[in-house]
Design brief:
Layout (H helix, E strand, L loop, with lengths): L1 H5 L3 E6 L13 E5 L4 E6 L3 E9 L4 E9 L3 E6 L6 E8 L3 E10 L2 E13 L2 E5 L2 E7 L6 E6 L5 E7 L4 E7 L7 E8 L2 E8 L2
Antiparallel strand pairs: 1-6, 2-3, 3-6, 4-5, 4-7, 7-8, 8-9, 10-11, 11-14, 12-13, 12-15, 15-16
Length: 197
């Protein structure tokens, strides 16, 4: 992140609220190349989103948490970035979208058709039970690991051929103050720490 800030990322926030349509539970992203190396990131409704720009070597160049109180857009100036391939990753509470960006010959080209939507695991805690819920429409293998506060593995399992994974964890007998859940699927890893008391 520091590296990216050094090369001069400039962001201008512009709020818009006209002609917006969104589905409940989802966020919609519209990214289109502007003149030179400018891209516009748009959200169609109020949402908390973590936005990151990643280079071809998987190094996070820029990361930002956005709370959009309504439909909004933000313009990013990428003029200081060298030619190359980048990924813009946008995460809400339940969903991840990835956009490929190629900077070449003074232009930022965004590949909209190559959006990869990955649903994030959702956790609920009621009484002494934590429930993990994951929508896995492509039936990819899902690895679930749980760690205590000392980083010891207390649970590990790989689930196959599950389009909807629901797993309940009874925490009534644990001595741990917190548990960290690591869910891996679709070449992504999602980490969530939950207090047990």
């Amino acid at each position: 992140m520091k590296k990216f800030l050094k090369i001069g990322l400039i962001a201008a926030l512009i709020f818009t609220a006209t002609g917006v349509h969104a589905n409940d539970g989802d966020f919609t992203l519209k990214i289109k190349g502007e003149k030179e190396k400018f891209i516009r990131f748009s959200v169609d409704k109020a949402e908390n989103i973590n936005l990151s720009l990643i280079d071809a070597y998987d190094e996070v160049l820029f990361e930002e948490s956005i709370h959009a109180p309504a439909a909004s857009s933000k313009i990013y100036d990428l003029n200081e970035l060298p030619d190359g391939k980048y990924t813009l990753k946008a995460e809400s509470d339940v969903k991840v979208a990835k956009y490929n960006i190629v900077i070449k010959n003074g232009e930022a080209i965004v590949s909209e058709p190559k959006i990869s939507n990955v649903f994030k695991p959702v956790y609920t805690k009621k009484d002494q039970v934590i429930t993990l819920n994951l929508e896995n429409l492509e039936n990819n293998p899902v690895e679930v690991s749980v760690y205590n506060e000392y980083n010891d593995v207390v649970y590990n399992e790989v689930f196959k051929d599950k389009s909807q994974l629901v797993k309940k964890f009874n925490i009534s007998k644990t001595d741990s103050k917190e548990l960290t859940f690591v869910v891996k699927y679709n070449d992504d890893s999602f980490v969530k720490t939950i207090e047990t008391y």
